Amino acid sequence: HRKYVAYDTPTLPDRTWPDRVITQAPIWCSVDLRDGNQALVDPMTVPQKLMMFELLVDLGFKEIEIGFPSASQTEFDFCRQLIEEERIPADVTIQVLVQAREPLIARTFEALKGVKQAIVHVYNSTSRVQREQVFRQDMNAIRQLARQGARWVKNYAQQYPDTQWRFQYSPESFTGTELEYAISVCNAVLDVWQPSAEAKAIINLPATVEMSTPNVFADQVERVHRALAYRDAVVLSVHTHNDRGTGIAASELAVMAGADRVEGTLLGNGERTGNMDIFTMAMNLYSRGVDPELNLADVERIEQVYTTCTNLPVHPRHPYIGELVYTAFSGSHQDAIKKCLAVRQPEDPWEVAYLPIDPADLGRSYEAVIRVNSQSGKGGVAYLLEQNTGYRLPRALQVAFAQVVQQESERSAKEIHAAWITQAFHDAYSQQ
Ligand code: KIV
Ligand code: ZN
Question: From the record, what ranges are coiled-coil (predicted)?
Fold first, then answer.
């Protein structure tokens, strides 16, 4: 008896991706306002959606999935408001999601009336489980639905010739779909759209549910990358979720395996365990010297808009942005950081132990780096005292005074702040 089954793993004897690194940012598409929003206990109001949209534009996103206009009046109205109030910058393309159903596609084009450019993102579910248990249709019927959806999108677009349209197709539940079949569905859609190098289509591969290790997902992406028809006329996109906790790694490996574009959300909001976190992946690129082509320096604003719009907290250990990620509690870490910072010249590359990036790049300060509690050693105590008073203690005094601080932190079981350390130092030594 096997309760859980393995999913399709392609055989790629001459695979090349594990040896690569990412050398340039992928095309980013934020789905905060759609996938992120649909997963909230209280979906965003229109003012919250506007606040998030403005943030995404300011961060530099050029493609933003703003919603599912045929799904509700709020979604429809938000789309209309963006267009009628001319809030979409000329270099930003909005994207909207729709199922492969004609009335929904018709309503979607109505919502987009008058927009200068837009991506219409059509999808249907292709996995074996969905085919057999949800739709009760065979492979041919599901492929036919995808083809028909592509035709509807193309035909409705022709009724609005003043808009520059782009088309995107997702085989939803791709990770549960037999790989060669998924490729045949995507190719059937592309045959309808007949994309060209000047008018590219987007094929988006969703890990709707993350079902494998990221390397297996990347192998699947590589197989699609190699087998897709019209490959030069296609932007290959991935859309990973985080069910196994590896949504970011899956997108990173997918880019190494041939994907051109990544869909995700800020800080990983989204269905269940979330979408992949674009903020973290972008900062991963930044910290290895690759321009992420997003302006993420104002983390205070990102956190403030994120929490206001989603009503979700930011975890204190969230990579790069969490309140605790530039702190060192252990004495040996504090000592190493202090030594690296002391020898560092401003023009040197950033190589500081325990600090993968310079906190100042995200508006954080060095003052927050050294914190003292009962786990800290003499180095951290001496560092904070020097920062606060300018005193540089000889080693013997560092050892003696650290014991005073440690006693207090053990007694109170709390972090000890620089002000307490300064006062205690004066109390202990100023009379002597
Ligand atoms: O996760 C998913 O499959 C989606 C699709 C609709 C792209 O969000
Ligand atoms: Zn999704």
Answer: none
